[in-house]
Amino acid sequence: MHIVTGPLGWIEVVCGPMFSGKSEELIRRLRRARIARKRVQVFKPAMDKRYSADEIVSHGDQRMPSEVVTNAKEILTKIDWRAEVVGVDESNFFGLDLVDVAAQLADSGKQVVIAGLDTDYLGRPFTPMPELLCMAESITKTLAICVQCGNPAKHTQRLVESNDLIVVGAAGSYEARCRRCFEPGIPKQDLLEFARPRTLSKEDKAD
Ligand code: ADP
Ligand code: ZN
Predict the structure, then answer these.
(1) Pocket test for ligand 1, best of 13, 15, 18, 20 (most atoms within 8 A of CB)
(2) 0.90 cut: is pTM over it?
(3) Which residue, 11, 26, 62, 87, could crosslink 136 as a Cys pair with Cβ 3.0–4.6 Å?
(4) Domains of the chain (ranges plus CATH)?
């Protein structure tokens, strides 16, 4: 239980791999805030247009209208200062600037709810999540289901060939994997297929 007196701002973070329910959890919290008659504002990065240009959308197709910003600082120009609860989805697209922005919003008395990936396609901490986790009053780590073995999955497995940190994509480009099944980068068998589309070898033909 949190005992809060007056309009105390704070930061809560929901983090985990893709498909772990971060957007669903963010939408759930923001809906509950609306039920409590709080003024809610939601932001998402412009580069994430996978499912909708102006909504946050979960992989289970839950939706909530959202404002689109090209960078973290734009949140401060678009914020309605009467907003009591501010949601941010896909926070890993915003970089380190989001840390200052979240702090300013929380310091001004707003409840800030941030969702984003905590690790990248190599399993490394994904900026700005480590910093946000240290600053937050509340932290939730969500896990997906490993598509290989069914165990709890903390990793986002990239399935397409790229060394870029950010490759926007959903099902087909990424899948959830547990610690045991995760292969940092691209799975080896897929790498082989990228390099050399499979054709029948002499031995195969002999079969
Ligand atoms: P995130 O924001 O973490 O990417 P979403 O909230 O968008 O997650 O989607 C979560 C939903 O994705 C689940 O409720 C489920 O319907 C669906 N889903 C698809 N693949 C998986 C998986 N491998 N593990 C868990 N949920 C999955
Ligand atoms: Zn697994």
Answers:
(1) 20
(2) no
(3) 11
(4) 10-143 (3.40.50.300)
